[in-house]
């Protein structure tokens, strides 16, 4: 895709996100309709659904022939990376949204034939937008992202999945102990923003495409590494344990995982 086209799409998506954020904030203190999906910890609300319907409708109007992969199922059945594919997570961190009314994000990504073109992660309450891609660069609230220091695991904090630590999957306890400390935020989007801003050296969790689609584009554009937990290439449609980190911390984690 050409720069002019990407810049036009970028401007349009930022408009959707502003409107989407306004919609969420307008309804955040209303009585939520909450239901479970796969377990009592996997929630969906009426706001998740409304927000996804809104974003999907905007994409349909803007690009009718594109396919859309949305967490709540209002897009298309996407089983290949061919053509234009949008990935939408209307509320990332729904448990946080329900219980805290904080620490949740809206995420949108655009892929073209499997190549990440543009990614967006909006911290709704913090009103912080990480956006961009490999051709236009990565921006933090409209300003070029500050270069990320290549910090080692031992010198930084790391975001980890609580259940993975409790079950010591992939030697998560050792990873936590080798770092300066672990943080559990409960939202992939918030964790990814923290890595992009240099607040964390990495993040590990089981993720689905809507959890990492935008982050993969932004992080790789910013020089970070995002792979499967064992260092293999992460496909756009993967659902697996994901390792995001600085290059040094990534190498450190793989050494521990491989023990």
Automatic annotation (TrEMBL):
> In its UniProt record, which GO terms are filed under biological process?
inositol metabolic process; signal transduction
Q: Which GO terms describe its molecular function?
A: inositol monophosphate 1-phosphatase activity; metal ion binding
Q: What is its EC number?
A: 3.1.3.25
Which residues participate in Mg(2+) binding?
71, 89, 91-92, 211
**What is this protein's name?**
Inositol monophosphatase family protein
The question of whether Metal-binding is a record keyword is answered with yes
Q: Which domain of life is it from?
A: Bacteria
Q: Which residue positions does the secretion signal occupy?
A: none
Q: Quote the CDD domains the UniProt record gives.
A: IMPase_like
Q: Which coenzyme or cofactor does it need?
A: Mg(2+)
The kind of enzyme this is, by top-level EC class, is hydrolase
Q: Which InterPro entries match?
A: Inositol_monoP_metal-BS, Inositol_monophosphatase-like
What does the UniProt keyword field contain? Answer: Hydrolase, Magnesium, Metal-binding
């Amino acid at each position: 895709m050409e720069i002019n086209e990407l810049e036009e799409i970028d401007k349009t998506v930022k408009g959707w996100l502003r409107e989407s954020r306004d919609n969420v904030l307008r309804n955040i203190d209303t009585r939520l309709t909450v239901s479970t999906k796969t377990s009592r910890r996997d929630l969906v609300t009426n706001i998740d659904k409304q927000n996804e319907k809104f974003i999907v409708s905007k994409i349909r109007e803007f690009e009718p022939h594109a396919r859309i992969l949305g967490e709540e199922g209002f897009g298309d059945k996407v089983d290949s990376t061919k053509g234009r594919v949008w990935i939408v997570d209307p509320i990332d961190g729904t448990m946080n949204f329900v219980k805290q009314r904080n620490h949740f994000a809206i995420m949108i990504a655009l892929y073209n034939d499997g190549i990440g073109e543009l990614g967006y992660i909006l911290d709704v309450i913090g009103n912080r937008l990480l956006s961009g891609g490999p051709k236009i660069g990565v921006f933090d609230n409209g300003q070029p992202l500050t270069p990320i220091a290549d910090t080692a695991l031992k010198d930084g904090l790391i975001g980890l999945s609580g259940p993975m630590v409790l079950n010591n999957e992939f030697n998560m306890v050792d990873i936590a102990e080798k770092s300066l400390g672990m943080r559990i935020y409960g939202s992939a989007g918030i964790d990814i923003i923290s890595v992009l801003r240099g607040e964390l050296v990495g993040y590990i969790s089981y993720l689905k495409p809507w959890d990492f689609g935008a982050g993969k584009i932004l992080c790789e554009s910013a020089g970070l590494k995002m792979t499967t937990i064992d260092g293999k290439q992460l496909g756009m449609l993967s659902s697996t344990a994901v390792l995001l980190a600085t290059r040094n911390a990534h190498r450190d984690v793989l050494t521990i995982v491989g023990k």
